[in-house]
Every structure is written in structure tokens, then in C-alpha cells.
Write a structure and sequence with these properties.
Two copies of one chain form a homodimer. The first copy, chain A, is of the alpha+beta class. The first copy, chain A, folds into two domains: 2-151, 2-Layer Sandwich (60s Ribosomal Protein L30, Chain: A); 158-345, PurM-like C-terminal domain (Phosphoribosyl-aminoimidazole Synthetase, Chain A, domain 2, Alpha-Beta Complex). Helix content of chain A is 35%, strand content 24%. Chain A has twelve helices and 14 strands. Chain A has helices at 2-5, 9-22, 70-86, 107-124, 175-189, 204-211, 217-225, 240-251, 266-274, 279-285, 301-305, 342-345, and strands at 32-34, 41-45, 48-58, 91-101, 127-130, 133-135, 141-151, 166-170, 232-236, 254-258, 291-296, 310-317, 323-326, 332-334. The two termini of chain A are 32 Å apart. Chains A and B meet through helix 2, strand 2, strand 3, strand 4 and helix 4 of A and helix 2, strand 2, strand 3, strand 4 and helix 4 of B.
Chain lengths: 349, 349
Amino acid sequence: MTSKKIRTIEELGEFGLIDHLTGGFTLRQESTSTGVGDDAAVIDHGAYCQVITTDLLLEGIHFDLVYTPLKHLGYKAVVVNLSDVYAMNAAPRQLTFSMGISGKFSVEALEELYGGVKLACDRFNVDMVGGDTSASVTGLMISVTAIGTALKDELTLRSGAKNHNLVCVTGDLGAAYMGLKVLEREKQLHAGDPGFQPALVGYDYVLERFLKPEPRVDVLLAMKEAGIKPDAMIDISDGLSSELLHICKSSGCGVQVYGERIPVAEETARVAGEFQLEPLVAALHGGEDYELLFTVPLSDFDKVSAIPGVSVIGNITDQKGKALLVGNDGSAIPLQAQGWNAYTQGESK
Amino acid sequence: MTSKKIRTIEELGEFGLIDHLTGGFTLRQESTSTGVGDDAAVIDHGAYCQVITTDLLLEGIHFDLVYTPLKHLGYKAVVVNLSDVYAMNAAPRQLTFSMGISGKFSVEALEELYGGVKLACDRFNVDMVGGDTSASVTGLMISVTAIGTALKDELTLRSGAKNHNLVCVTGDLGAAYMGLKVLEREKQLHAGDPGFQPALVGYDYVLERFLKPEPRVDVLLAMKEAGIKPDAMIDISDGLSSELLHICKSSGCGVQVYGERIPVAEETARVAGEFQLEPLVAALHGGEDYELLFTVPLSDFDKVSAIPGVSVIGNITDQKGKALLVGNDGSAIPLQAQGWNAYTQGESK
């Protein structure tokens, strides 16, 4: 009955909408272990599992062709999917690549796009096994589905976080968002100028983080070597805050993270300053970082701290659904879910 | 070198473009049996195989929301993918459903769309295991990936046709295309009229064939019961002519089919008459029928002829790449590949 009162997508938000629409679906195939609600679905093949994930990249929402090189776009379209596979602690194996393209694209432009796809496939040892190519009257759209495998006891879901677990992130956060801000600023400064040459010198780091994200295979390998198996893991595509809340919801736990421990690169902080933005806000809500957020047992503290590129930022609590950001002065403020809300603001996120 | 001269997508066509762009990709995962080039890719799991297929449905290309009920659209988006799974002689198991939607959609409209998806999942016993939901600034787009399984010796590829095989089709052809023509005519007659009530009485069959295609599970089951295993199979999504040429290319053979044996429903012929179109042209090039085209050994003639809904329309020859349409007078004309060419004509196909 309640659902009858809900009329607009904005009221539900992205995650609410997905829950609402997929709530009525039941799983009945024996082989389906996990359906909607993790980085990837899981299919059971006995000793090993297969994970399946899919992502859309739409012109005007996820990318702007004014400043996105097609080769980078092809690479990124693959990588954002592989990132979901890695976040299940699985190895990617196959992918399908589909695109809708308008007639304005030349074959050479599409070769660039596919060049990026091939680069990612070569680099991460993934087979491109199929796809669909269609005309589009409404801009470029890309849909990728990636498939990976993991031994059953290696698979890591969002739902495995345990009380007192350490909460860790890889790399640094917020850079991709600041890269996007720089590109958007340059675009607006040169609106309508066909000879548009953006002034991007000095912004290499944040631009690369936005245009060419890299999945953190290195950290996963180092953890395996160190004998660490995360209890829960998720990739940071929508911003740290949103992903922390996903883990709390799926694992039925709470979390507290310490603001000063959240890793932000120097260049990210400098660019955030230019935009009069608190660097921590970019890290918490920026998204598109494709770093990993995971939890490990407290006893792994020494081992996990020794891995280059890993920061311990907080811990899991038994305060179900309570996600807190703890400040230097000991004050704690609740983290907000954000995710994208491009329906209303029309901004890339 | 030759590829450097090619500049426009039109010159290459759909199939040429796919060949061109995917030509440089290599397969290296042991589990990948078949990549690009069949109805679905094949992943090896030992005794059984998994097939993976994906299809895009884009507003303005594959559907027009002026006359497409959302529930039908959701159902069709699933069915066109399941049809590819069945065409591998496999049983569908899981699917992912992704969509890009503009803010103009109400939650109720999306419930309709998902209602159609759920109906198809329930009917064909498939689990919806994931997807991606995104804002879109450019109309509705849907991307579905379906996964099925088959025992290794039951899998049927496009490439298995043998000399003297009988060429068979299920159901009747050309109806979906005539349904589309009727809907387009009504739309044009009422262009700009917000109270548009199309005059569709008497067109039930062709409309249903276009709006609500059904995969031919019944025929596959009947063939299994009769002990028939097709040598080659493909689903008819782009028109009989195009699919016959796919089989010839993949199997390294030729084919001849008899015009008078190609099944066309009475209503399809009547509607084709209204549009001054030869019914056979609709059957050969219309597309969207989602019937099955398959080949069986000559010795199966009696068994296959006894199955309701199967027509034997010709035979495989050893004249590699030669696809002929034989007329009543014994004349033979070469079949043309068509596929969609919506890049230039902007018409749904």
C-alpha cells in the first residue's frame, strides 16, 4: 500500500528505486547464490563460483565527449566492471561489450574506443566474448558485463563484516571527483569555442584518476601473499560514505571512521582548495575512485598496515546501521548516503 | 592497409563493423570456448557449458514509446535475449537487466516495465540476478545479458551445418515486420494528436508478433522428445535471409531455400498486401520474428516434419557462401544480407 503513494524517482533515490523494483523478484535456479545487492551476482559451480556484474556508461551522464578521449573511455568502461569483480575477491575472465552509436562516429573513432577496451582486456587478462552493436539516435551508450571466478571460500561479499573488524581503504580518495571538476571548469570557460584547448598543466594526477582509473589488483595480490582474507569488501564507485553505508546495511552492523585517517592526496587537497571545497567532502562523496573498501579481523592489524597503499580508517561496531565520522576533537557526525542523483541535477556522477 | 581506406560505418555495415572492431581481440582464458560470432559466447565448465548473450534495446531505434506498452517492452527485452540462449540449444538460467531512464518516468511506469521483465522471468524460469540503473538524458535504453547452460554435446552452434542437411524454420515469418508497419502508419496518421487512439482492430496477430514475441521452447522440447539434435541453429532476429547467410559463413557451406515453402501467415500476407509489399520480402528481410532456423540430417526428415510448427524450407549445399532462393519456375536468385542499417535510415529494425 505504501508503494502506491510513491510517485517520483527522486523521492526513492537510486538505491531505493532498485530495491523497490527488484523486491518482487524471486530466485529459483539452484545455481544462483546471490542476486541483486552486491558488487556482483554469484553463480555456484560446485568448488568455484562465478561472479557477474554489469555497468552502463551513458553520454551526458557518465562521460562528456568534449573532454573524454575515446580510448580512455573504452578502457574505463572495462575497468569499472573489473573493479566490481575484484571487489568480490574474484579474478575477471570474460566480458561482453555493447554500444549504441550514432552515425556521426567514424570507424577510426570506434577503433580508438575499442583500442581502450583491448588495452584493458590485455592488461587484466580478460576475454572479450561478445556484445551488441546498435545504431543510436541519442548519443553514445556503452554497456559492459564482466564475469569472474573465485574459489568458494575466497569470495568476499558486502555482508561479511564483523564487529571490531578494521575498516581499510586502498589508495587515496576524492581525486577523481576533483579531476572531473577541473574538466567541467575548462569546458565552461571555453563553451562554444571549437578550438578548445583546456589548460590542464599541473592537474595530471586528478585528471588521470578520473579519466583512467585502475583497479587495485596489486593490493589484492599483496593481501593474498600476506595471508589476509577480508571479511567484507566493496569498490568505491559512489563515494566512501555511500559504500560504508552499503556494508553496514548488508552486514547488519555499524561503523566509525576517523576523518584524519581518510587518505587524500596532496594534489587533491590543493585542487579542492581552488574550488573552495573541503577535501574530506570530495573523499566522502566524490565517487569514481574505484579504490577498495574492506574489513579485516583486528588481529590482522600489523599485516594489513604493512601493505603499501592500504590505510586503516576505522572499525566496525555493533551499532546496527550507525555510520559515524569521528573528528579530531572526538565529535561524531552521522554519514549520509548520497549515490548519484543525476535525475534532478543532471551532473555526471 | 585496406582498413585504413574505410571511413564510414555505412560502408562496413553492422556485421562488417563488428568483424572489423573485434578482429584484433584474442581469447586466452582456458574456459572461453567461443567468443564473438554466434548467438552467444560459450564458457566451458567441464561436462556442461554456459552460454552468454547480450542485447541492447534503444528508444528511437528498437522501440517507440508512442505505441509500445512498457510491460510489453520489459517482456520483449528479456525474450529477445532468451531467444539467443535457446538458439544455442541451451536452457536460460540467469539474466541481468540494466536501464538508463530519464526523470520523466514515474515509479509506476517503471513498475510496468519491471512487471514485463518479471513475467518473462517467471514464465521461462530465469533468475534476475543484477543490473545497473542510471539516469539518462537521452531517452530510455535497456541492456540485458542472459546466461544459460547446456550439456556439451547438446550445444548447437551456427557452424555445424553439413552438406545435404535439411533447412527448417519454426512458426511463420514476416508478421512482426508487418506489425511494426501498422503501428508506424497509425503513428503517422495521428502525429501530434495527444489523444491518439490507433485503429488496430483486425491486426491482432501481426501486432502481437511484433510487441510480444515468444521464444520457441515448445519446438526445442518436441525435437528433444523426437530424438532430433540440430546440426546448426540460429534465431531469426534480422530476417531469414541474413540468418541463412550467417549459417553459410560460419559453417562454410551454401544453402538453397524454396520460396513457396517459406511459411507466411494469412494475416501477414493480407497486411503486406495493404502496404503493396510482397509477403516473401517481409519474411526474408523483416526481422524481429524470433523464430528458430536450424538444420538437421536428411535422415530426420520424417521426424522433423511431424513436429507442429516446423517447416522444411530447403537444404544445405557444398557451394560455399552461395545462398539461393529458388522460385516456382526453378529460377534461383542469390539472397542478400541485410541486417539493420538504421545508421542511414533511422528506422526501427
